[in-house]
Amino acid sequence: MCDAIVAPFSGEGAQIHFAVPDSDPKHPWWILLSVKNVFTGELFSIPVDTRTLAYVRIAVFVALALSWPVAMTRRGAGALAVGIALFAMAMALSVGLPLLQVLGIVRILGLGVLGQSVISIGILTFVTYPSMAYAIPALIWWLTWRMALPRGGGTLQGAPAGEKPALAP
Length: 169
Hints:
- By secondary structure, the protein is α+β, with helices and mostly antiparallel strands.
- It has helices at 2-10, 50-67, 74-105, 112-128, 132-148; strands spanning 14-19, 30-37, 43-49.
- The chain contains five helices and three strands.
- The protein has a three-stranded antiparallel sheet.
- Helix 2 (50-67) runs parallel beside helix 5 (132-148), helix 3 crosses helix 4 (112-128) and helix 3 (74-105) runs antiparallel to helix 5.
- The N and C termini lie far apart (46 Å).
C-alpha cells in the first residue's frame, strides 16, 4: 500500500520500496523503507516503526474522538472533517520527512544544508520521540474540539450540563 501511495511522487530516478524485513521478533512492527537511485545504483534503507508512527497515533486520535464527540452539530461535523484532514497531513509528514531525507542521501534530491537541517528538525519533532505519538494526535484533537465549540462560548451539544469548557479570554 505504501509503495502505491509514493509511486506517483517518486520520479524516474528513484525506486522507493517499503518491505517487511525478514522475521525479527524484537521489532515486529518495523518495515524497511528502501530508496535506490537508478542512475548511480546507490541504495539506502531505514527502518520505520509503524507502531509508533501509525498504530498508536490512530488509536489515540480515535479514542479522543470517541470520548469527546464533536460531530453533533454542523459546526462540529466541519471541525471533525478539518481535524481528520490535519491528522492525515501529520501522518503523511511523519513518513514523508524520513523519505525526503533518504532521497537526499542517495542524491535524488539536492536538499542543501538548510533543507537537510529543516528535515532533521522535523524528524526529531514528528518521528523520533515516542511521546510525539501521543502528543500530535492529542494536539490535533484539541484543535478540532476548539473549532467545534460554539462561537458564543457555550458548551458542545450533548455535553453534560454541569461541564462548561474553559475558554481563553
